[in-house]
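Sat 14:20. Reprocessing the chain from the morning session after the first attempt stalled halfway. Input below, unchanged.
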Amino acid sequence: MTIRVLLADDQALLRSAFRVLVDSEPDMEVVGEASDGAEAVELARAERADVVLMDIRMPGTDGLAATRLITADPALAHVRVVMLTTFEVDEYVVQSLRAGASGFLGKGSEPEELLNAIRVAAGGEALLSPAATKGLIARFLAQGNGAQDEGRDPARSERLASLTGREREVLVQVAGGHSNDEIAERLEVSPLTVKTHVNRAMAKLGARDRAQLVVIAYESGLVRPRVD
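Finished this time. Tokens:
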């Protein structure tokens, strides 16, 4: 199956470079280019995109607002958004994750990292860098004041009570950035069992993907940020 990719960035040169890279892969193709967030939302609908590479900072409707519009539209429930940013960790990234983005990638990443990010997002996995999962994003999510509190969904935290003990264990591991195979090894169960628990946790908590599970785990206090 070919992954349909939409590029959203106000820099035409960067979009062109991404297009050449993506179109060179046999399992993916660029189906559209947008120079601002509003256009990205329209093209996501029109071109049936699977993954949107979304720049955070764009004129007019920025990437954050566009991500919220995409993730709030039931007709675009299948679309995964990967945020592109110059700065790996800032409050915009946190808000993007809360808005439903599957993760983020630095613009200075290697070509293989970008291609892998597209495949990971298309597969429904969370795309969170080691720096993010080792405390930086966690500390932002754990703060409960100012603009960073706007995206919180108290109802989701309350739904934690509906999780089984094993589902909570798996959620903690997901929040640590571990894959299904790694979690299976840690908990001594099969990867298929882990996948089942992850899917049930997402359904109960109203999460689009694993990135949303990470957000919920930290915001609810189930997982505490580590200060290295």
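The two ends are 42 Å apart (CA to CA).
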